[in-house]
Write a structure and sequence with these properties.
alpha/beta, Rossmann fold, six-stranded mixed β-sheet, six-stranded parallel β-sheet, 10 helices, 12 strands, 40% helix, binds 2'-monophosphoadenosine-5'-diphosphate
């Protein structure tokens, strides 16, 4: 066990609820492996305490924070600087504190892209179907559009997909279609798509029998990325594999967003395999 000293740098995560976060195990294991004098703690912060929590982090000279639900958007006015992509997205998940100057980043977006690129998938110029139009979709859709993919966003409430598509089209002058998430539209979009990303919560534990896409619409030429990581192998990914598609699970995005935050705080390359291993183990112990 690492000793905490007067020199130990402190990082952490703020959210509410926070009990189920995988981030402390990933980051503390990574600090240990690299022999870095850092510690990472969970902080439950209620929405009404958010500004005070940010001021507290600044006053306590906390080196870095991750930010999770429900604070990813609301925290922005309390920061000093924003990375340009995070500014376009309008949400952050990582803060770096450089001598009292707090800068916000969105490593959900960059982590998602890295997870794709690591598997040899370059989204530039590809047709991508994104299911969902919530917070996760926002980060993913923005970075895909920035990278030069052409997007179709399908959502249960089509007005949300429309709104997101408009913001993206404004920011990148790119081609973005918005549709209702139903079988007919899925059939039409997936006939042409090369990559399918599920950002909805369909298939997440405990409703593991659900899937956003009927199995007969899946095909071997698709790359299917499901950002749900609990369970790691969702019904969508199982059926995609049966169809012969290449699959990427949500743990990859989780691990990459953590790795990219780690690198910003420490300046060291993150031990990705270790972070993946401890997150997998921790998920196995979830009740
Ligand atoms: P997150 O930050 O994980 O994206 P969110 O902002 O609450 O969470 O978004 C959840 C997404 O999952 C939304 O796209 C939501 O669709 P609606 O905008 O229509 O609500 C989608 N979603 C959740 N449950 C769903 C269900 N049973 N069927 C279809 N889509 C669902």
């Amino acid at each position: 066990m690492r000793l905490i000293s007067g020199k130990t740098k402190v990082c952490g995560i703020i959210g509410d609820p926070i009990e189920h976060t995988m981030s402390p195990v990933m980051h503390n294991a990574a600090f240990d492996r690299l022999g870095l004098d850092y510690v990472y703690l969970p902080f439950r912060v209620a929405a009404k305490e958010l500004e005070r929590a940010v001021e507290g982090a600044r006053a306590l000279n906390i080196r870095g924070l991750n930010v999770t639900i429900p604070h990813k958007v609301a925290i922005i006015p309390f920061l000093d600087k924003l990375d340009p992509l995070a500014e376009k997205i309008g949400a952050i998940n990582t803060i770096v504190n450089d001598d009292g100057v707090l800068t916000g980043y969105n490593t959900d977006a960059t982590g998602f892209l890295q997870a794709l690129l690591e598997q040899g998938i370059e989204p530039k110029g590809k047709r991508v179907a994104v299911l969902g139009a919530g917070g996760a979709s926002r980060a993913i859709s923005f970075i895909l559009a920035q990278r030069g993919a052409s997007l179709a966003i399908l959502n249960r409430q089509p007005a949300r997909a429309q709104e997101l598509a408009q913001r993206i089209a404004q920011a990148f002058k790119s081609e973005v279609e918005a549709l209702a998430l139903n079988e007919e539209n899925l059939a039409q979009v997936l006939a042409k798509a090369e990559i399918l990303v599920n950002t909805t919560s369909l298939g997440m534990s405990p409703e593991v029998d659900k899937t956003p896409v009927p199995a007969q619409l899946l095909k071997s030429s698709l790359v299917v990325f499901d950002i749900v990581y609990n369970p790691i192998q969702t019904r969508l990914l199982r059926e995609a594999e049966v169809a012969g598609a290449k699959t990427i699970n949500g743990l990859e995005m989780l691990v990459w967003q953590g790795a990219l935050a780690f690198e910003k705080w420490t300046g060291e390359k993150a031990p990705l395999d270790l972070m993946r291993q401890v997150a997998t183990e921790a998920l196995g112990h979830e009740d």
